[in-house]
Protein backbone atom coordinates (compact mmCIF):
# COMPACT_ATOMS: atom_id res chain seq x y z
CA UNK A 1 0.00 0.00 0.00
CA UNK A 2 2.28 2.75 -1.20
CA UNK A 3 0.49 4.51 -4.02
CA UNK A 4 1.07 7.89 -2.33
CA UNK A 5 4.56 7.28 -0.97
CA UNK A 6 6.72 10.44 -0.79
CA UNK A 7 3.67 12.68 -1.17
CA UNK A 8 2.54 15.34 1.26
CA UNK A 9 -1.22 15.83 1.31
CA UNK A 10 -3.44 18.39 2.98
CA UNK A 11 -7.12 17.61 3.56
CA UNK A 12 -9.60 20.26 4.69
CA UNK A 13 -12.56 19.31 6.86
CA UNK A 14 -10.70 16.15 7.83
CA UNK A 15 -12.02 15.82 11.38
CA UNK A 16 -14.85 13.49 10.40
CA UNK A 17 -16.94 12.09 7.57
CA UNK A 18 -15.53 11.99 4.04
CA UNK A 19 -12.47 14.11 4.94
CA UNK A 20 -11.45 11.76 7.75
CA UNK A 21 -11.88 8.72 5.47
CA UNK A 22 -9.71 10.35 2.80
CA UNK A 23 -7.05 11.25 5.38
CA UNK A 24 -7.00 7.65 6.62
CA UNK A 25 -6.79 6.21 3.10
CA UNK A 26 -3.99 8.61 2.13
CA UNK A 27 -2.08 7.66 5.27
CA UNK A 28 -2.58 3.95 4.49
CA UNK A 29 -1.09 4.59 1.04
CA UNK A 30 2.04 6.11 2.53
CA UNK A 31 1.36 9.87 2.28
CA UNK A 32 2.38 12.36 4.96
CA UNK A 33 -0.98 13.86 5.89
CA UNK A 34 -1.83 17.28 7.24
CA UNK A 35 -5.42 17.42 8.34
CA UNK A 36 -7.14 20.74 8.93
CA UNK A 37 -10.55 21.53 10.32
CA UNK A 38 -12.42 24.31 12.11
CA UNK A 39 -13.25 21.81 14.87
CA UNK A 40 -10.05 21.73 16.95
CA UNK A 41 -10.97 18.90 19.34
CA UNK A 42 -12.37 16.40 16.83
CA UNK A 43 -9.69 17.34 14.31
CA UNK A 44 -6.85 16.68 16.74
CA UNK A 45 -8.42 13.41 17.90
CA UNK A 46 -8.83 12.13 14.32
CA UNK A 47 -5.31 13.21 13.39
CA UNK A 48 -3.89 11.39 16.45
CA UNK A 49 -5.85 8.26 15.54
CA UNK A 50 -4.52 8.05 12.00
CA UNK A 51 -1.03 9.43 12.55
CA UNK A 52 -1.51 12.78 10.79
CA UNK A 53 -0.53 16.32 11.74
CA UNK A 54 -3.35 18.71 12.58
CA UNK A 55 -3.92 22.45 12.33
CA UNK A 56 -7.11 24.27 13.26
CA UNK A 57 -8.15 26.44 10.34
CA UNK A 58 -11.26 28.10 8.95
CA UNK A 59 -11.14 27.55 5.18
CA UNK A 60 -13.09 30.77 4.58
CA UNK A 61 -10.33 32.84 6.24
CA UNK A 62 -7.61 34.24 3.98
CA UNK A 63 -5.40 34.89 7.02
CA UNK A 64 -5.68 31.23 8.07
CA UNK A 65 -4.57 30.08 4.60
CA UNK A 66 -1.65 32.57 4.72
CA UNK A 67 -0.56 30.92 7.97
CA UNK A 68 -0.73 27.48 6.33
CA UNK A 69 1.31 28.74 3.37
CA UNK A 70 3.98 30.01 5.70
CA UNK A 71 4.19 26.74 7.59
CA UNK A 72 3.75 24.40 4.61
CA UNK A 73 5.21 26.11 1.54
CA UNK A 74 5.36 22.87 -0.49
CA UNK A 75 2.62 20.36 -1.19
CA UNK A 76 1.80 17.44 -3.52
CA UNK A 77 -1.92 16.93 -2.96
CA UNK A 78 -4.73 19.16 -1.70
CA UNK A 79 -8.27 17.97 -1.04
CA UNK A 80 -10.72 20.85 -0.66
CA UNK A 81 -13.29 18.83 1.25
CA UNK A 82 -14.60 21.14 4.02
CA UNK A 83 -18.18 22.10 3.30
CA UNK A 84 -21.44 23.05 4.95
CA UNK A 85 -25.08 22.79 3.89
CA UNK A 86 -26.25 25.72 6.01
CA UNK A 87 -28.56 23.40 7.96
CA UNK A 88 -26.04 22.44 10.65
CA UNK A 89 -27.71 24.41 13.44
CA UNK A 90 -28.52 24.42 16.25
CA UNK A 91 -31.34 26.89 15.52
CA UNK A 92 -33.72 28.54 17.96
CA UNK A 93 -36.73 27.71 15.80
CA UNK A 94 -37.14 25.72 12.57
CA UNK A 95 -34.11 25.64 10.21
CA UNK A 96 -33.84 28.72 7.97
CA UNK A 97 -35.31 28.69 4.46
CA UNK A 98 -32.73 28.21 1.72
CA UNK A 99 -35.07 28.34 -1.28
CA UNK A 100 -34.56 31.02 -3.97
CA UNK A 101 -37.57 33.06 -2.80
CA UNK A 102 -36.99 33.11 0.95
CA UNK A 103 -33.28 32.59 1.65
CA UNK A 104 -31.59 35.49 3.43
CA UNK A 105 -28.49 37.07 1.92
CA UNK A 106 -26.60 36.34 5.15
CA UNK A 107 -27.42 32.61 4.97
CA UNK A 108 -26.54 32.51 1.25
CA UNK A 109 -23.20 34.17 1.92
CA UNK A 110 -22.36 31.95 4.90
CA UNK A 111 -22.61 28.83 2.73
CA UNK A 112 -20.63 30.39 -0.10
CA UNK A 113 -17.93 31.62 2.30
CA UNK A 114 -17.04 28.07 3.32
CA UNK A 115 -17.78 26.12 0.14
CA UNK A 116 -16.78 28.47 -2.70
CA UNK A 117 -14.43 30.98 -1.04
CA UNK A 118 -12.76 28.15 0.88
CA UNK A 119 -12.16 26.20 -2.31
CA UNK A 120 -10.86 29.27 -4.16
CA UNK A 121 -8.42 30.06 -1.32
CA UNK A 122 -7.33 26.43 -1.09
CA UNK A 123 -6.67 26.18 -4.84
CA UNK A 124 -4.72 29.45 -4.83
CA UNK A 125 -2.52 28.23 -1.99
CA UNK A 126 -2.02 24.83 -3.64
CA UNK A 127 -0.96 26.20 -7.03
CA UNK A 128 1.69 28.31 -5.32
CA UNK A 129 2.80 25.45 -3.10
CA UNK A 130 3.02 23.01 -6.05
CA UNK A 131 4.70 25.38 -8.48
CA UNK A 132 8.27 24.69 -7.37
CA UNK A 133 7.89 20.97 -8.19
CA UNK A 134 5.73 21.81 -11.18
CA UNK A 135 3.32 18.97 -10.39
CA UNK A 136 0.53 18.02 -8.03
CA UNK A 137 -3.10 17.06 -7.66
CA UNK A 138 -5.93 19.27 -6.42
CA UNK A 139 -9.15 17.44 -5.62
CA UNK A 140 -12.26 19.50 -5.03
CA UNK A 141 -15.22 17.86 -3.32
CA UNK A 142 -18.28 19.25 -5.05
CA UNK A 143 -21.55 17.32 -5.01
CA UNK A 144 -24.33 15.92 -7.12
CA UNK A 145 -25.97 19.17 -5.97
CA UNK A 146 -23.39 21.06 -8.06
CA UNK A 147 -24.79 19.43 -11.21
CA UNK A 148 -28.55 19.77 -10.70
CA UNK A 149 -30.88 22.31 -9.08
CA UNK A 150 -31.81 21.77 -5.42
CA UNK A 151 -34.69 24.19 -4.73
CA UNK A 152 -34.67 23.89 -0.92
CA UNK A 153 -30.86 24.12 -0.64
CA UNK A 154 -30.20 26.71 -3.32
CA UNK A 155 -27.13 28.27 -1.68
CA UNK A 156 -25.49 24.86 -1.23
CA UNK A 157 -26.26 23.84 -4.82
CA UNK A 158 -24.93 27.12 -6.28
CA UNK A 159 -21.77 26.92 -4.16
CA UNK A 160 -21.12 23.36 -5.32
CA UNK A 161 -21.68 24.41 -8.95
CA UNK A 162 -19.09 27.16 -8.39
CA UNK A 163 -16.64 24.51 -7.17
CA UNK A 164 -17.26 22.40 -10.29
CA UNK A 165 -16.59 25.34 -12.56
CA UNK A 166 -13.60 26.69 -10.65
CA UNK A 167 -12.04 23.23 -10.87
CA UNK A 168 -12.04 23.55 -14.65
CA UNK A 169 -10.58 27.09 -14.54
CA UNK A 170 -7.78 25.89 -12.26
CA UNK A 171 -7.11 22.86 -14.48
CA UNK A 172 -6.85 25.01 -17.62
CA UNK A 173 -4.82 27.70 -15.88
CA UNK A 174 -2.24 25.21 -14.62
CA UNK A 175 -2.02 23.44 -17.97
CA UNK A 176 -1.60 26.82 -19.68
CA UNK A 177 1.25 27.61 -17.32
CA UNK A 178 3.01 24.42 -18.40
CA UNK A 179 2.47 22.89 -14.95
CA UNK A 180 1.56 19.26 -14.35
CA UNK A 181 -0.81 20.36 -11.60
CA UNK A 182 -4.08 18.55 -12.15
CA UNK A 183 -7.41 19.68 -10.74
CA UNK A 184 -10.51 17.48 -10.71
CA UNK A 185 -13.84 17.48 -8.91
CA UNK A 186 -15.66 14.64 -7.16
CA UNK A 187 -19.46 14.74 -7.03
CA UNK A 188 -20.79 12.48 -4.27
CA UNK A 189 -24.43 11.99 -3.33
CA UNK A 190 -25.95 10.43 -0.21
CA UNK A 191 -22.77 9.39 1.58
CA UNK A 192 -23.54 8.37 5.17
CA UNK A 193 -21.67 10.92 7.31
CA UNK A 194 -22.54 13.23 10.24
CA UNK A 195 -23.69 15.79 7.63
CA UNK A 196 -26.93 13.81 7.35
CA UNK A 197 -27.72 13.78 11.09
CA UNK A 198 -29.91 16.92 11.11
CA UNK A 199 -31.98 15.40 8.27
CA UNK A 200 -32.22 11.86 9.70
CA UNK A 201 -32.75 12.72 13.36
CA UNK A 202 -32.71 10.10 16.10
CA UNK A 203 -36.43 9.41 16.32
CA UNK A 204 -38.11 6.01 15.89
CA UNK A 205 -38.66 6.76 12.19
CA UNK A 206 -34.93 7.05 11.45
CA UNK A 207 -34.66 3.77 9.50
CA UNK A 208 -37.74 4.68 7.50
CA UNK A 209 -36.32 8.13 6.73
CA UNK A 210 -33.02 6.59 5.64
CA UNK A 211 -34.80 4.22 3.26
CA UNK A 212 -36.95 7.05 1.88
CA UNK A 213 -33.90 9.17 1.16
CA UNK A 214 -32.33 6.53 -1.06
CA UNK A 215 -35.54 5.12 -2.53
CA UNK A 216 -34.77 6.81 -5.88
CA UNK A 217 -31.08 5.87 -5.84
CA UNK A 218 -30.49 3.02 -8.33
CA UNK A 219 -28.17 1.19 -5.89
CA UNK A 220 -30.80 1.68 -3.11
CA UNK A 221 -28.37 2.50 -0.33
CA UNK A 222 -26.23 5.28 1.08
CA UNK A 223 -22.60 5.36 -0.02
CA UNK A 224 -19.73 4.98 2.45
CA UNK A 225 -17.10 7.65 3.05
CA UNK A 226 -14.46 5.00 2.26
CA UNK A 227 -15.91 4.63 -1.24
CA UNK A 228 -15.29 8.33 -1.88
CA UNK A 229 -11.82 8.02 -0.34
CA UNK A 230 -10.92 5.29 -2.84
CA UNK A 231 -11.64 7.69 -5.69
CA UNK A 232 -9.60 10.44 -4.02
CA UNK A 233 -6.62 8.06 -3.70
CA UNK A 234 -6.78 7.40 -7.44
CA UNK A 235 -6.85 11.12 -8.28
CA UNK A 236 -4.02 11.84 -5.84
CA UNK A 237 -1.83 9.06 -7.23
CA UNK A 238 0.37 9.08 -10.31
CA UNK A 239 -1.95 6.59 -12.01
CA UNK A 240 -4.25 9.08 -13.74
CA UNK A 241 -1.83 11.81 -14.77
CA UNK A 242 -3.74 12.55 -18.01
CA UNK A 243 -6.90 13.44 -16.08
CA UNK A 244 -7.51 17.11 -15.36
CA UNK A 245 -10.61 19.31 -15.34
CA UNK A 246 -12.75 16.18 -14.99
CA UNK A 247 -15.87 15.74 -12.88
CA UNK A 248 -16.39 12.32 -11.33
CA UNK A 249 -19.79 11.35 -9.96
CA UNK A 250 -20.06 8.83 -7.12
CA UNK A 251 -23.77 8.68 -6.44
CA UNK A 252 -25.11 5.14 -6.66
CA UNK A 253 -26.20 5.83 -10.22
CA UNK A 254 -28.55 8.76 -9.57
CA UNK A 255 -27.20 10.94 -12.37
CA UNK A 256 -27.09 8.08 -14.85
CA UNK A 257 -30.79 8.47 -15.51
CA UNK A 258 -33.54 11.02 -15.14
CA UNK A 259 -36.67 11.23 -13.02
CA UNK A 260 -38.80 10.63 -16.11
CA UNK A 261 -37.98 7.17 -17.47
CA UNK A 262 -40.33 6.44 -20.38
CA UNK A 263 -40.78 2.72 -20.76
CA UNK A 264 -39.37 2.07 -17.27
N1 LIG B 1 -22.22 13.31 2.84
C1 LIG B 1 -22.77 13.48 1.64
O1 LIG B 1 -23.77 12.86 1.29
C2 LIG B 1 -22.16 14.46 0.67
C3 LIG B 1 -22.71 14.51 -0.61
C4 LIG B 1 -22.17 15.40 -1.52
C5 LIG B 1 -21.12 16.20 -1.18
N2 LIG B 1 -20.61 16.13 0.09
C6 LIG B 1 -19.49 17.02 0.40
O2 LIG B 1 -18.43 16.29 0.98
C7 LIG B 1 -17.71 17.13 1.88
C8 LIG B 1 -17.59 16.44 3.23
O3 LIG B 1 -18.90 16.17 3.69
P1 LIG B 1 -19.24 15.26 4.95
O4 LIG B 1 -20.50 14.58 4.64
O5 LIG B 1 -18.06 14.48 5.37
O6 LIG B 1 -19.55 16.41 6.02
P2 LIG B 1 -19.32 16.51 7.59
O7 LIG B 1 -20.25 17.56 8.04
O8 LIG B 1 -19.41 15.17 8.21
O9 LIG B 1 -17.80 17.01 7.69
C9 LIG B 1 -17.44 18.28 7.25
C10 LIG B 1 -16.19 18.70 7.98
O10 LIG B 1 -15.84 20.03 7.53
C11 LIG B 1 -15.48 20.81 8.66
N3 LIG B 1 -15.70 22.23 8.37
C12 LIG B 1 -16.88 22.88 8.25
N4 LIG B 1 -16.68 24.18 8.04
C13 LIG B 1 -15.33 24.37 8.02
C14 LIG B 1 -14.50 25.52 7.86
N5 LIG B 1 -15.03 26.75 7.69
N6 LIG B 1 -13.16 25.35 7.88
C15 LIG B 1 -12.62 24.12 8.08
N7 LIG B 1 -13.36 23.01 8.26
C16 LIG B 1 -14.71 23.13 8.23
C17 LIG B 1 -16.40 20.29 9.77
O11 LIG B 1 -15.92 20.64 11.06
C18 LIG B 1 -16.38 18.80 9.50
O12 LIG B 1 -15.32 18.15 10.16
C19 LIG B 1 -18.49 18.45 1.94
O13 LIG B 1 -17.90 19.39 1.08
C20 LIG B 1 -19.85 18.07 1.44
O14 LIG B 1 -20.55 19.15 0.87
C21 LIG B 1 -21.11 15.27 1.03
UniProtKB/TrEMBL annotation:
Signal sequence annotation: none
Highest taxon above the source species: Bacteria
Pfam family, one: adh_short_C2
Family according to the record: Belongs to the short-chain dehydrogenases/reductases (SDR) family.
Record's protein name: NAD(P)-dependent dehydrogenase (Short-subunit alcohol dehydrogenase family)
